[in-house]
Amino acid sequence: MSGAALSKGPIFFGPFLVTSQVCGRHLFFSLTPFLVRMSPLSFLVFYITPLSFALVNLKPILPGHVLVSPRRCVPRVADLTPAETVDLFLTVRRIGRMVERVFGASSLNIAIQDGLDAGQSVPHVHAHLIPRRGADLDARGGTDAIYSMLDGDEGDLGRIHREMESEEKRATKMTPSNHRRSGFPAVDNDRRVARSEGEMTHEAEMLAREMEKEPED
Amino acid sequence: MSGAALSKGPIFFGPFLVTSQVCGRHLFFSLTPFLVRMSPLSFLVFYITPLSFALVNLKPILPGHVLVSPRRCVPRVADLTPAETVDLFLTVRRIGRMVERVFGASSLNIAIQDGLDAGQSVPHVHAHLIPRRGADLDARGGTDAIYSMLDGDEGDLGRIHREMESEEKRATKMTPSNHRRSGFPAVDNDRRVARSEGEMTHEAEMLAREMEKEPED
């Protein structure tokens, strides 16, 4: 499924408006101040198809950790239409290939917390894609330690909002380390470093360009 | 994608032959001795579509934990054709609905260890589907403790073989507890109780019947 033929219109992740306007395969990142006000989180989104979209993380578990969601805001995979299911997972496969290539990985974790009792935080279907490399978590408990890190921070856009506001207040005294990804983040979410809007925007723009290079199916 | 129109032919999970003959939507469970010899693990499989199949587990992490695989034996999601990807995930969605209903669950974990460095044990794409209920893992570390249990036991059919041979040797002194599912299994795989062939056959037959009740998309 190509991302080329896009319908226009807003996209929400849970209750949060994440896009205002789309063009071609990816977003206009130079949104007008009006649109930015309407959609303060649009910088997170790097790819949109007719029925799905993909966004970067505030606190990636490992470099390249991204999310893929259906455009229609429904909580459960069983709520998706067959067409939405097909589009979502073809998008998961395509973005998975891309992040694995771009982040120099050799494997991929794909995980969906489908419903509250499975650990879902935002009631909007989302697949975690996490590029993996050999021994990347040896110091943190081994290969499968990745899963204990999947505890809901991903979609907490309310927290992203709040943390961004705090970041803005600190902006005048920002040090370079605030802008740099911190290697492999700690297991505990609270110890993972929240990235700046600038860093996330840069990554989303880079991933949007990389998706242009990704061959069609 | 319906399971009704099936091509005949053997199906492998990794190097292991898991089916010999199919009819309608599910297997003939009354295989001839010859076919049983050809396919000693066929009792694990409860659903087959033109491009995918589903099987029960020797040591389910929680009741209803099943696997869904493409019929073609390839290690990575990126190796699948678009048609295989579509069939696999429509099958995941359909079987997810069924196990959630049958096991009285309210949510579902869906996880793919896509490649060796993501924790994959058998080099054949497989999605874990694990029905979840509120507080089902509170005594074992909380909702997300499920992931630490996903450490490769699922597809170790070589181990299934070996354990079944041991079970057979103990068959004459089998107690009822060997045949009963042990509530919520321990976190450590080695403490999880291997189920008997009889129990797995019974579950696979039950799930095959339940898939007959599952509405088409």
UniProtKB/TrEMBL annotation, chains A, B:
Cofactor entry: Mn(2+)
Q: Where does substrate bind?
A: 57, 113, 119-122, 128
Gene3D superfamilies assigned: HIT-like
Q: Which UniProt keywords apply?
A: Hydrolase, Nucleotide-binding
Catalytic residue positions: 126
According to its UniProt entry, one GO biological process term is: diadenosine triphosphate catabolic process
Q: Where is this region: Disordered?
A: 166-217
Q: Where does motif Histidine triad motif map?
A: 124-128
Molecular function via GO:
bis(5'-adenosyl)-triphosphatase activity; bis(5'-nucleosyl)-tetraphosphatase (asymmetrical) activity; nucleotide binding
**Residues in domain HIT?**
31-139
PROSITE patterns xrefs: HIT_2 (PS51084)
In chain numbering, the residues marked as site (Important for induction of apoptosis) are 147
Please state what class of enzyme this protein is.
hydrolase
Q: What is this protein called?
A: Bis(5'-adenosyl)-triphosphatase
